[in-house]
Specification:
The chain has 19 helices and 13 strands. It is of the alpha/beta class. It has a domain of 239 residues: Alpha/Beta hydrolase fold, catalytic domain (Rossmann fold). Strands 1-2-3-4-6-5-7-8-11-12-13 form an 11-stranded mixed beta sheet, with helices on both faces. A two-stranded antiparallel ribbon has the order 9-10.
Length: 493
Amino acid sequence: MKLKISTLLVAAAVLVGLAPAAQAEETTALTWADCQDGFECATAKVPLDYDDPYGRKIDLAVIRLKATNPSKRIGSLFVNFGGPGASGVNRLRERAGWTWLFSPELRERFDLVSWDPRGIGRSTPVNCFDTEEQQQQFLGQIPEFPADQNAEPGFYSQYKEFAQRCKDKAGELLDHVSSANTARDLDQLRKAVGDQKLTYHGISYGTHLGAIYANLFPNKVRAMAFDGTLDFIGNATGHGDQGTTVPLDTRQDVPRGAAETFDQFLTQCAAPGAHCAFAGGDLKLKWRQLVDKVKAGPVTIPSGTYDYVALIGTVNGALSVPDTWQETAKTMQELYDAPASLTTKSYISNRTEAFNAIQCADSDFPRDTNVYTSYGASEDKRVPDFGRIVVFDMMACAFWQGRDTDRYTGPWNRWTSAPILVINNRFDPSTPYHGAKDGAAELARTGFLTVEGYGHSTMLVRSTCAEKAKRDYLFTGVLPKVTNCGIDRGPFA
């Protein structure tokens, strides 16, 4: 087996906000080894605490796929696929061949590099259970959100216990998993592969990580494409006093994004020539009848059994991925036509633990459960079906016991050495268009590309136009002249 070595600086020479004692450098080797299918893998050692660079080290699992044309190679393209909590190693393996995301032209010129950020997957992970069986048993019993106020006390109790389990099992790691520390890790990886400046593609949560990097290391930006973009102030602290008074995704008005996208789902389903199983009649009325049906009792179809929580969770999740809309419409029609019954659901992976550990470290949250109860009721009235699920989507953070004192809360407008390209779909249920516009305005140097489509990011929505604009920008660092792109085909085509 051939081994390849590059240098990784595991402690920064000068990191914004660090005490002088932390401004030392320590050098180690990052050893690349073949890990099948053309990929190379390595493990980086980085400080748990960048204020103590010679103290405890943690592992980062890193993967790369080298450029197909070395003579035209520009450098490395670091990719964070979102989450937080998902394995970047697994996702690069799965998605490197997605030509609408990584075109052959782009693959010629960049090594694709991703990693499991601290707390996740093959890196030093946040674990809250001794075994996978314990994890599945505990998390599998927690509903996606409480269906009504009667279900809330039990829901709160379950997440309080979950937060305590994480504190007991993960310990001090919980105090060092903020995205600011991951941005510092990313800068060490940039140095390790020999790039003078960072070329980066951040998707969804990856845009928040990228914005932090751009403000911690503004002179190290070569090109950064943000796709499915957050409102960075809204995510970290909220505007005004929102951080302690409004649940996170509620203050970013994610319900509005989800509702607008679902309205497009129904509109596209009803369009002439659409291949949509739910089509026929007044679709908004059919949807209300379906919601009332599953609220009255669970309904069984060949793919499983659905109560109200399961239906809303399924549809809300599907809105991000237009390729699933035809199957989702089929599920909705089968539920609409079927009689009723009962079932359970299961859970796997450490993604929930990592998601909460990172998000709760990064952001301010209300700690009073009465806030969630109040917003659960008011958002359900303001945005029926999609308001309530969002209020409770980060419930663990109300009880979370880890706190990273190095988290980043601004400023967000430091002048970067290159402009940043911000991309967002017009109808995005997870990073709504209005929030992406706010996020872009919070940064110092940006261009904005609107994709006239539905779903979450161009990773999940295919647009040849947007891919070319993004690709050319990553090649040159020059913002595209095009400001609007269409999608390659509709979800019910």
